[in-house]
Design brief:
This protein has 284 residues and is of the alpha+beta class. Helices cover 23% and strands 20% of the residues. Helix 1 packs across helix 5, helix 2 packs across helix 5 and helix 4 packs across helix 5. Belongs to the FPG family.
């Protein structure tokens, strides 16, 4: 599933095409994805200026001047493609939704597995939307500090890896970037979240922000389905230090003359990658 860096990369590409524009038509090519497409989707947003595109967690929000908002979630296999005016390309397979701008740009949502989601609501009702109502703090916002991270984790003894994936605490973090941040912060993924001390919190906060920013700069991570809006893959997968590297030498240990392999365990049905030397097990 695309995580914060992938969604942010897609959002930035869409901004240059959609902000300040109006939609001339919307093609809805099937009745549903994970949920039915909302009534009025093909008519309500038309001919109204798009005033802003923004991201909340892993959701893309398109705000219109008449106070309506389209929400897009890519699910597991969703991709958004942009065709600029004059590009006469044939429709792609599994194009379920197509936005046409009045200056002839084409934005297509492709979702083979149909786990994505599109919603339409009045902007003033955003906080009541079930997808958005209980989301936690944005990790790239000014409100995200070592202190607010500590507060978000203070009440749970669940493993730190699981706690960071809880979108009610901190949004946008997924399996890849949590594994990478915990590795850089030298925190074992099974350590209880509320047992981290101030030094742990300061390191973890810093590396969460650093890794997200680096991943955005690299265009995100392409492992299977994710690509940019022009069809090109991201590049941050080439910079992963532990994720997907089970059995390979830890790159930090290697620089210090140690031969320690990255290990994989399962937490809440998800693979967790870590270095047993750099990230000491708190139970041993």
């Amino acid at each position: 599933m695309p995580e914060l860096p992938e969604v942010e990369t897609i959002l930035q590409s869409m901004k240059s095409v959609l902000e300040g524009q109006t939609l001339s038509s919307i093609d809805v090519n099937r009745p549903d994805l994970r949920l039915p497409f909302p009534q009025g989707l093909s008519t309500i947003p038309l001919h109204q200026p798009i005033i802003r595109l923004r991201r909340r967690a892993k959701y893309i929000l398109i705000d219109f001047q008449h106070d309506w908002t389209i929400l897009i979630h890519l699910g597991m296999s969703g991709r958004l493609f942009i065709n600029h005016a004059g590009e006469n390309l044939p429709p792609r397979k599994h194009e379920h939704l197509v936005l046409w701008t009045e200056n002839k740009h084409r934005i297509a949502l492709v979702d083979p597995r149909r786990f994505g989601m599109v919603c339409l609501f009045q902007t003033k009702q955003e906080e009541q939307q079930p997808q958005l109502a209980h989301l936690g703090i944005e990790p790239l916002s000014d409100h995200f500090t070592a202190q607010t991270l500590a507060e978000a984790l203070a009440t749970t003894r669940m493993p730190i890896k699981n706690a960071l994936l809880d979108q009610r605490r901190i949004v946008g973090l997924g399996n890849i970037y949590v594994c990478e941040a915990l590795f850089k912060a030298r925190i074992h993924p099974q350590k209880a979240a509320n047992s981290l001390d101030k030094k742990d919190m300061k390191r973890l906060h810093g590396f969460i922000v650093e890794i997200l920013q680096e991943a955005i700069a690299a265009g995100g991570s392409t492992l299977r389905d994710y690509v940019h809006t022009d069809g090109q893959p991201g590049a941050f997968q080439n910079l992963h230090l532990v994720y997907g590297r089970e059995g390979e030498c830890c790159l930090i240990c290697l620089t210090k003359g140690r031969s320690v392999s990255v290990q994989r365990i399962t937490q809440s049905s998800r693979s967790t990658f870590f270095c047993p030397h750099c990230q000491k097990n708190p139970h041993k």
